[in-house]
Amino acid sequence: AQSVSQHNHHVILSEAASLELGCNYSYGGTVNLFWYVQYPGQHLQLLLKYFSGDPLVKGIKGFEAEFIKSKFSFNLRKPSVQWSDTAEYFCAVNALGGNTPLVFGKGTRLSVIA
Amino acid sequence: GAVVSQHPSWVICKSGTSVKIECRSLDFQATTMFWYRQFPKQSLMLMATSNEGSKATYEQGVEKDKFLINHASLTLSTLTVTSAHPEDSSFYICSAGKPAAYEQYFGPGTRLTVT
Questions:
Q1: What is the pLDDT of residue A98?
Q2: Please, which of A12, A13, B69, B95 could form a disulfide with A17 given CB 3.0 to 4.6 Å?
Q3: What CA–CA distance (Å, rounded) separates A42 from A47?
Q4: Is pLDDT of A42 > 70?
Q5: Which residue among B32, B43, B101 places its CB closest to the CB of A90?
């Protein structure tokens, strides 16, 4: 069975600090990888996704993630966070092949302080 | 684009009543839709996979007689919470994917409060 681990439960950063959120997955086959963001009181928004090709993926709002197959990792990064990045971040995977359900990590709450 | 809507966005019902939540893909056809549940400050957990024209596939621990799923058309799936209890209060989110595509598109969610 697939599983996703997000190591950081709550991260607190000052504005302009760099961000890296860890995500590791467990699955026996090839997967698609996603990062979603959920702002307070809002629904899920896709930040970025990896299906194949260049393991360094750039998403919206200055976020990027790197897929390291040997480590089963897909860490999310942003060089300089803003107060508006305060949100819950979810890593998710699904099996390659399309139209398969997503397995989510427990989420990481990011608080950015001025 | 690929837009998924849910209705209602928020519902309060009394214990013992039933509530129907709709999930629609507005600009694409979805043979498969997924229903997730998110408790406060927790992650999304898959409840069931809804397939157009066939029975839904439920995850272990999800009561299929309590959470009735109907996927009657390629753009509409419904989740009915029957005989709702306060412990069913949660955020219910659906997603849909385009055929043969990898990405899923999420609805805005429905907040259910059972009193």
A1: 66
A2: A13
A3: 14
A4: yes
A5: B43
pLDDT of residue B60: 93
The Cα A42–Cα B93 span in angstroms is 12
| Min Cα separation A43/chain B (Å) | 5
Q: Quick one: tokens of A80?
A: 């300089």
Q: Report CB contact under 8 Å: A101, B49.
A: yes
Contact B101 A105 (CB under 8 A): no
Cβ B34–A96 below 8 Å, yes or no? no
* Contact A105/B at CB under 8 A: yes
Confidence category of residue B83, pLDDT binned at 50, 70, 90: very high
Q: What share of chain B is helix, strand, coil (3-state, %, to 5)?
A: 5, 55, 45
Asked if A103 and B46 come within 8 Å (Cβ–Cβ), the reply is: yes
- Taking an 8 Å cut-off on Cβ atoms, the answer to whether A102 and B97 are in contact is no
Residues of chain B in contact with residue A96, where contact means CB-CB under 8 angstroms, are: 102
Instruction: Give the nearest chain A residue to B99 (CA atoms).
Output: A99
Q: Which residues of B9-18 are buried (b: 16+ CB within 10 A; e: fewer)?
A: eebebeeeee
Q: Indicate if the pLDDT at residue B86 is higher than 90.
A: yes
Biggest alpha carbon–alpha carbon distance for chain A: 43
Q: In sequence order, what are the residues at sequence separation of 6 or more whose Cβ sits closer than 8 angstroms to the Cβ of residue B55?
A: none
pLDDT in tens, A47-61: 999 998 999 999 999
Count Cβ atoms below 10 Å from residue B99 Cβ, excluding itself. Answer: 12
